[in-house]
Design a protein that fits this description.
This protein is mainly beta. It has helices at residues 2-16, 71-75, 93-96, 355-360, 414-419, 422-431; strands at residues 25-29, 35-39, 43-46, 49-52, 135-136, 141-143, 152-155, 161-163, 166-167, 170-171, 174-176, 182-186, 195-202, 205-211, 218-224, 230-237, 239-242, 247-251, 257-262, 267-272, 279-281, 287-290, 294-302, 319-327, 332-340, 349-353, 374-376, 382-388, 392-396. Helix 1 crosses helix 6.
Length: 439
């Protein structure tokens, strides 16, 4: 069985691990089949010099106090060499989890498999033509729908949270349904599914084009974890914003701004970068449509409960395009946001932070701060809007002092490895036909 062999692999790692002195681990033994290792206080390798995190230094070492290290020192790959021919290559993942919605030139590069937007690019053979699974950017959930209305579909999932009955003070589960609150779309998508193409990505999100098939009439969107607005930049399309609910135009007195209320009691604000463009609710009563071909950016955001309709006005012109993690030191890192727009350097970028980010962020706005803009994530608590004019957040974590064990609690003896012929088992496992693997 594959699972049994996997356990044996883990056990073998312990059996063939290098001597403790080679990895800075103090070992203790209790019997021939037991080893326990504890990693000593952390040290770091910086440009060939050994640096102590405690402030004490050895000959040729440098104290970390007051120093910073470039992100490359911490996050550089161990190797970019091609894997050994020992490992046979198979393309069976494309059958198990087909890749969709990815630009052809991006397919020549490694594609992330564990990002928050993974549901937008992976599916199953059963669902490939019918089911669009949501991705959770928080505070919004997003879809690239396979049925009309097509476009970038947005849901504020907290509205639809349902919880099991409380028993002895405990709720067994809670769920979030997905609904089409608003879809950034175009009338040209009405009858035919457009082409969705994710064409680039960063540490914190991805960029997607939605185009009339075979045409350069497209809308372009940046999807970033924590984004305050869901946005699309249009070229050669008649823009429309569609909902599964009837909508009422509450206010359109400010050029380039529309406040709409949905039948589910949500209130959304729509911003148009082209303030001369005209939008109105169409005959269906559930779509806000431009009067002509639209060139510009549309942005939508849900109003927090009891918030003023102007809460987003100062930040509507700063658009986020992506974000990357940069290591500053052992315990400090920054999130560098890629932005564009006239307001980024003046009024700043508005972006939502999760609770664990707020706790360690320098100068963070909290839920208790005056004027805080607060929305809910799906499962991670309240998110608080942060404003930055430097397109950067700085976060600092406490030094971890927990002991980390290198070896498993038990390891097989050399006699046991010989008796079960583990080496041959592993070789056969590597050479086996994995395409027929079933868990």
């Amino acid at each position: 069985m594959k699972i049994t062999q996997l356990v044996q692999v883990i056990m073998t790692v312990a059996a063939i691990a290098p001597p403790a002195s080679a990895v800075g681990i103090t070992m203790s033994q209790a019997g021939s089949d037991f080893q326990q290792g504890t990693i000593q206080p952390p040290v770091e390798q910086v440009k060939g010099n050994l640096t102590s995190s405690s402030g004490s230094t050895n000959a040729g070492a440098t104290s970390t106090t007051g120093s910073s290290v470039s992100s490359g020192d911490y996050m550089a790959p161990f190797s970019t060499e091609e894997p050994s021919d020992l490992f046979q290559r198979y393309d069976t993942l494309t059958t198990l989890a087909p890749i969709i919605n990815v630009a052809s030139d991006l397919l020549t590069k490694p594609i992330p498999t564990n990002k928050w937007w993974g549901n937008l690019i992976h599916t199953t053979t059963t669902d490939i033509n019918t089911v669009a699974n949501p991705a959770w950017s928080n505070p919004y959930a997003l879809k690239l729908p396979k049925q009309a209305p097509y476009g970038l579909q947005t849901c504020y999932s907290y509205t639809y949270r349902s919880m099991a009955n409380e028993v002895d003070g405990v709720v067994k589960y809670y769920l979030h349904a997905f609904h089409n609150d608003l879809t950034l779309s175009a009338t040209e998508f009405a009858s035919t599914k457009p082409d969705y193409e994710i064409y680039s990505f960063s540490d914190m999100g991805a960029n997607v084009r939605t185009c009339v098939s075979g045409s350069d009439a497209c809308m372009d969107s940046s999807l970033v974890n924590g984004m305050a607005f869901v946005s699309a930049t249009y070229s050669g399309l008649t823009a429309s914003i569609e909902s599964e609910y009837a909508m009422t135009l509450v206010d359109d007195s400010t050029a380039g701004k529309y406040v709409i209320k949905l039948l589910n009691n949500q209130t959304w604000v729509v911003y148009s970068s082209d303030t001369s463009a005209s939008f109105s609710i169409d005959s269906t009563g559930s779509a806000l449509v431009s009067s002509a071909t639209y060139t510009g950016t549309l942005r939508v955001a849900i109003l927090p409960d009891s918030s003023d309709q102007s809460v987003y006005d100062d930040y509507s012109s700063c658009v986020i395009r992506g974000g990357n993690v940069v290591m500053e030191s052992r315990t400090s890192y920054s999130l560098q946001w890629e932005t564009e727009g006239t307001g980024c350097d003046s009024t700043g970028l508005l972006h939502f932070a999760l609770p664990h980010q707020v706790e360690v962020m320098s100068g963070a706005t909290t839920t208790q701060s005056s004027g805080a803009i607060v929305l809910h994530s799906s499962t991670r608590g309240q998110m608080v809007g942060q404003v930055t004019t430097t397109s950067s957040w700085t976060l600092t974590e406490d030094e971890a002092d927990a002991e980390v064990d290198f070896y498993p609690a038990n390891k097989p003896s050399a006699d046991m490895i010989s008796q079960i012929d583990l080496l041959s088992t592993l070789q056969d496992d590597i050479d086996s036909e994995w395409s027929n693997f079933t868990p």
